[in-house]
Write a structure and sequence with these properties.
This protein is of the alpha/beta class. The chain contains 23 helices and 25 strands. Among the domains are: 75 residues, no CATH class; 65 residues, Oligo-1,6-glucosidase, Domain 2 (Oligo-1,6-glucosidase, domain 2, Alpha-Beta Complex), CATH 3.90.400. The strands form seven sheets. An eight-stranded parallel beta barrel has the order 1-2-5-11-12-13-14-17, surrounded by four helices. A six-stranded antiparallel β-sheet has the order 18-19-20-25-22-23. Strands 7-9-8 form a three-stranded antiparallel β-sheet, with helices on one face. The mean pLDDT is 97. The structure holds alpha-D-glucopyranose.
Length: 633
């Protein structure tokens, strides 16, 4: 099925000034993506024709306006469709001002990122937020303006280009579940404009909100209980999943989709290479459900991505869906959405299991849970991470826990106690975020170093930190570091001092990187120097291992020692076995299993040594060992 003549004709009006070749290219892309566009629009809206026509026009206009260097990038990406899966991809995420002052400052720290091996840079929300508390920029007042303290749109465009010249892709957020109540759309809604009132979910009385609340969880039970906020100007209850000043958008209104399609294309033409779809799980609401992970969420992604594939195919999409393991894989595309939604999604389950293994000194639950995850489409890629700017929520499936004889509740309670620093013998120094007495949930904030106990025990803490990063970097996918973790920075002791931050201890895990700290990376006698050296080494070794291409299937070996996680990656160039000891004692692994995995002359690529078994055929993994075993090169 190709696009009808009339649709091509409408698009052609925007393409008149282009060369014949470029026009032909657009026509090819439109035909290629037409079925995906139609299918997704039909899933969402009763009368999709007009919408689809408008989307094609937007795509054509953006295509015509696409700067030349980005057209070249489109061609480059189309020649290497697996660019995100390559083992030399490594990510870094930070707040611009906390990492480098402003956008120009980021440009001046490119050498720092390159020393670390970074090829992907996620700058936290830069768009103009509401004044005052703004959830770290996630309450956007104007998507088309850059925070003036960071620079201008021109600075952003320039930075994107400079990063690209240095082999670093710029990643930015698209906050699409909500806008700030100060955003123009909300302002107009409050002024009584019915068009804009319909951009939001507003209810005259409590009847519907009460019905929804019966099955809705609370994201911020501490500082924003409930999911609806009364607004005097609207004379109604507006849906606010997050804070009371973050108004959820009504994605059932095709106008909202058009607004965001236009934003997506503008960001692509600015030079953004990956869009992080913030809180994407929440965009579609359905009575009687928790209003997360609804199938329409994936149709929304499919529409936005398809429009981008037509106009700016270099742009990739990343789903930020911090959901349970059973819901996660759909964000990379399953069923009718397979291969049509995000290219990337956060591997929240792996992250949680890493912390669980370290605290429990036991891999049984992780092995079961990770092995139980359904396969992902071969074209997609995980974002793997030890932690991010947010708190850690214990997304452990009750069924997985029960399958290995644990209680989900009990284990989650243990993890909260352990990482909050209240369990006997713990090394961790985290902070409890959003205690919910109704569910018993206690999420945890803190830097990676504080969560592994580096400040108290530099030696074992460092070993745990490197181990956690090795598991994540050895999984397959893009490993992303949160700023400061590469220097082993502890929790920011002064996190509450900044205006608007006091109530939100996620700021403890978002330290600032001043010049003196950054300089310590070259001094191996300091903790920052040791951590930086170790993580840069991981990323370097990783880049040289084709087995870590994300397209290679991952298999978690069953029946290993309780303290050992063994992960096999099969690749035409030869297998890789990741061996991880999550305890502080030596643990055994049978050499025969390396052989069974296909290794002839096992060699730990991370430390550069042969893997020598005992005479009885046992390989002993030292405390907190992290080995990537391949055949001797
Ligand atoms: C995402 C962000 C988080 C923010 C929320 C609401 O989960 O990572 O920081 O609070 O969305 O936008």
């Amino acid at each position: 099925m190709t696009a009808p003549r009339a649709v091509h004709d409408t698009a052609a009006r925007h393409l008149a000034a282009l060369s014949r070749d470029r026009r032909a290219d657009f026509a090819l892309r439109l035909d290629r993506w037409w079925p995906d566009l139609q299918a997704a629009a039909g899933e969402l809206y009763p009368d999709p024709e007009v919408l689809v026509g408008r989307l094609v026009e937007l795509a054509a206009a953006a295509y015509a306006a696409r700067p030349e260097d980005l057209q070249l990038l489109d061609r480059r990406r189309l020649l290497t469709p697996d660019w995100l899966q390559q083992p030399d991809m490594a990510g870094y995420a930070c707040y611009t001002e906390r990492f480098a002052g402003d956008l120009d400052g980021v440009g001046e720290r490119i050498d720092y990122l390159q020393e670390l091996g970074v090829t992907y840079l996620h700058l936290m929300p830069l768009a103009l937020p509401r004044p005052g508390d703004n959830d770290g920029g996630y309450a956007v007042a104007d998507y088309r303006r850059v925070r003036p303290d960071l620079g201008s749109l021109r600075d952003l465009r320039r930075l994107a280009g400079t990063l690209r010249q240095h082999g670093i892709s710029l990643v930015l957020d698209l906050v699409l579940n909500h806008v700030a109540r100060e955003h123009d759309w909300a302002v107009r809604a409050r002024a009584g404009d019915p068009t804009y009132r319909d951009y939001f979910l507003v209810f005259d009385d409590r009847e519907q909100p009460d019905s929804y609340e019966r099955t809705l969880p609370e994201v911020f039970p501490d500082f924003a209980p409930g999911n609806f906020t009364w607004d005097d100007d609207l004379a109604g209850w507006v849906w606010t999943t997050f804070n009371s000043w973050q108004w959820d958008l009504n994605w059932a209104n095709p106008q909202v989709l058009l607004e965001f399609a236009s934003l997506v294309l503008d960001m692509a033409n600015l030079g953004v290479e990956v869009l992080r779809l913030d809180a994407i799980a929440f965009v579609w609401k359905r009575m009687g459900t928790d209003c997360q992970n609804q199938p329409e969420v994936h149709a929304v992604t499919q529409l936005l991505r398809t429009v981008a594939r037509i106009a700016a195919p270099a742009l990739a999409f990343k789903a930020e869906a911090i959901v349970g393991p059973r819901d996660l894989v759909a964000y990379l595309g399953t069923g009718r959405h397979a291969g049509r939604v995000s290219d990337l999604a956060y591997h929240n389950s792996l992250m949680v299991q890493v912390w669980s293994m370290l605290a429990a000194r036991n891999t049984v639950l992780a092995r079961h849970a990770l092995a139980a995850l359904p396969p992902v489409p071969a074209s997609s890629t995980w974002i793997t991470y030890v932690r991010c700017h947010d708190d850690i929520g214990w997304a452990i499936d009750d069924g997985d826990a029960a399958a290995v004889g644990l209680s989900g509740d009990g284990h989650r309670r243990f993890l909260s106690d352990w990482y909050a620093g209240s369990f006997p013998g713990t090394w961790a120094d985290g902070l409890v975020f959003q205690h919910n007495p109704a569910t018993g949930d206690r999420r945890i904030s803190g830097t990676a170093a504080s969560l592994v106990g580096l400040p108290h025990d530099p030696e074992l803490g460092l070993a745990r930190l490197v181990l956690a990063h090795a598991i994540v970097a050895g999984w397959g996918g893009i490993p992303v570091l949160w700023s400061g973790d590469e220097l082993g920075l502890p929790n920011d002791a002064h996190w509450a001092d900044e205006p608007g931050h006091a109530g939100d201890n996620r700021w403890a895990g978002r330290p600032r990187l001043d010049a003196a700290l950054v300089a310590q990376r070259h001094d191996p006698s300091t903790v920052p120097g040791q951590v930086f050296g170790a993580l840069a080494h991981l990323i370097r070794v990783r880049a040289g291992l084709p087995q870590l291409h994300a397209g290679a299937p991952v298999e978690v070996l069953p029946d290993t020692d309780d303290g050992v996680l063994a992960v096999v990656r099969r690749h035409p160039s030869g297998p890789l076995v990741g061996l991880y000891n999550v305890t502080e004692e030596p643990r055994p692994f049978p050499a025969a299993r390396l052989e069974a995995a296909g290794l002839v002359d096992p060699w730990n690529a991370l430390a550069g040594h042969r893997v020598d078994p005992d005479p009885d055929g046992t390989v002993w993994l030292p405390p907190y060992a992290a080995w990537w075993v391949v055949d001797h090169p």
